[in-house]
Amino acid sequence: PRQSFVMVKGAARLLPAEEPPRAEPPPAGPPCQAPGQQEQHLHLMMQLLRPQDAIRLAVRLESARPRRVRYLLVVRPEEAGAEAETALLGVDFTHEGATHCTLGMVLPLWSDTQVFLDGDG
């Protein structure tokens, strides 16, 4: 299935199927980031998911390690009423041009879940 994203400054948001992609200026990525690198990262991260899952939001995080690239994903199945199956995923790339990624965290979001992110990033 085709998925459309809007990407702005290290964050990507899934567009609903009925909404056409908006014309946005290209994001001003860090100087070390090659053109299209964020799209490549999204493609690799989507390969980690089950076929019925979709990335609702992807945010690039600051990493404590200089070369490591980290993303926080909000993921849930595409079928209607699947909000109860939403999860946060932590995805790591060993460096900017890595050709594979690893899943470092899976946190299911239940109706009574409270998530607090701490730090200066």
From TrEMBL:
The annotated region (Disordered) lies at 15-36
- Enumerate the transmembrane spans: none
Q: Domain Slingshot N-terminal: where?
A: 41-121
Q: Which GO terms describe its biological process?
A: negative regulation of actin filament polymerization
Q: Which GO terms describe its molecular function?
A: actin binding; phosphatase activity
Skewed-composition ranges (Pro residues): 23-33
Alphabetized PANTHER family for the sequence: PROTEIN PHOSPHATASE SLINGSHOT HOMOLOG 3, SLINGSHOT PROTEIN PHOSPHATASE HOMOLOG
| Protein name as it appears in the record | SSH3 phosphatase
Task: Identify the species of origin.
Answer: Copsychus sechellarum
